[in-house]
Amino acid sequence: MQNAGVPPAPKSVLARGLRLLDAFGPDDTELSLAELATRSGLPKPTALRLLRELLVWGGVEQAVNGRYRLGMHLFTLGQRVPAQRELRRRALPYLEDLYEATHENVHLAVLHGTTTMFLEKLTGHRSTPIVSRVGSRLPAHCTATGKVFLALGPPDRVRRVVDGGLSRHTPRTIVLAGLLHRDGDTVPLDRFIAPKIEAEIVFVLGAPLRGPGVTLDQARAAISGVRAGLEIVDSRIEDWRIKLADTVADLASNGAVALAPTLVPFPEIPDPRLVGMVLTRNGSLVDTGAGAAALGDPVAVVAWLANVLGAEGVELAAGHLVMTGALHAAVPMAVGDEFVAEFDRLGTVSVRVG
User: Fold this and answer.
1) How many structural domains are present in the chain?
2) Are residues 131 and 227 in the same domain?
3) Most buried residue among 22, 67, 164, 235 by CB atoms closer than 10 A?
């Protein structure tokens, strides 16, 4: 009888043997004959015959309790994959230097479809415990390395991940895809209550930050790139007569974010305080501002956030986007409006209101 959810057993002997190997999941150490037969969809006699051949070849090993585990010959073959071997050889000295400097988890990873594949991992007793393992894959939207790939990649990469669904894997996994918009998107007004729009400088972190005690210099060192951004803020409180508790209850008044397609390397922005901005609505000037409007220095926002979250045991991870705050007074939105924010060195970002 065919097991529900398992594709029909292939006809070729080779494909059936590979089906048995694929039956081992990332968290499996050993599996019984019955478990392997069930997962592979093969009859027990067929599974047993193929397992005996795999034992001789070294693809599987049999424990004293009769259960099966993947064999060392598979590990040996994996180390012969040329792309992985050469990339790991070239990167390992830098990974070791980075680990010595931080004593945090250090990964070598590549983007595989919409997932992050881990090729190497250095960790230690002081490193934050995480679930990544060499050879494993995790969804890009819920890993620090994956967020780096998404933040630094083309817009269609983010769209593929969002269209595939943002499943929750941790308490802090980003799953609200409706909060993210591309440059030029039309944002439906009826999705909000009393929306206003703000132009902001957006930093992309290239390294983790854990407070308290993060300095401005440490915050600068952790920033890898800068984007122009528009944030739509919203509130359930009539006429925006909000207090701190109201802001917290409304997720810091966040409604949505639109990001410019261009990521500017941080070293190309010598002083973010001097980045000027001009905001127009339907071609008419609305307001102007500069980076210094954000706590005197947008980098100070990153340090402040890292220290506040660090006091609660929360770390800013590589790949995180930090919206540094409005450079002007928030502007009410109406159907038919088109807002364009032009930033010095960062380019433009725009949204339409539908």
Assistant:
1) 3
2) no
3) 235
- Residue 291 CA to residue 273 CA, distance in Å, equals 4
pLDDT digits (tens, 9 = 90+) for 239-284: 777 665 555 555 557 788 999 988 999 999 999 999 999 999 999 9
Whole-angstrom distance, CA of residue 184 vs CA of residue 182: 6
> 97 and 180 share a domain?
no
Give the full edge-to-edge strand order of the sheet including 137-139. 106-112, 115-122, 137-139
What span, in angstroms and rounded, lies between the C-alpha atoms of 225 and 203? 6
User: Six-digit token pair at 333?
Assistant: 């939105």
- In a domain? residue 329: yes
Q: Are residues 281 and 151 in the same domain?
A: no
Assess if residue 72 is contained within a domain.
Answer: yes
Task: For residue 6, tell me if it sits in a domain.
Answer: no
- pLDDT range class, residue 1, cuts 50, 70, 90: very low
Q: Does one domain contain both 342 and 210? A: yes
Which 3-state string (H, E, C) describes 189-236? HHHCCCCEEEEEEEEEECCCECCCCCCHHHHHHHEEEEEEEEEEECCC
Could you tell me the residue range of the domain that residue 100 belongs to?
A: 82-158
pLDDT tens column, 141-163: 888 888 888 877 776 787 788 77
* Residue 237 shares a structural domain with residue 323: yes
Per-residue pLDDT tens over the stretch 36-76: 999 999 999 999 999 999 999 999 999 999 999 999 999 88
Token match 């590589």: residue?
Answer: 318
The 8-class DSSP code of residue 342 comes to E
3-state secondary structure of 336: coil
Note whether 180 and 250 are same-domain residues: yes
Amino acid at 85: R
Answer for the pair 230, 182: CB distance below 8 angstroms, yes or no: no
Are the C-beta atoms of 335 and 214 separated by less than 8 Å? no
What's the whole-model pTM score?
0.62
CATH number of residue 338's parent domain? 3.90.850.10
Q: Is 260 part of any domain?
A: yes
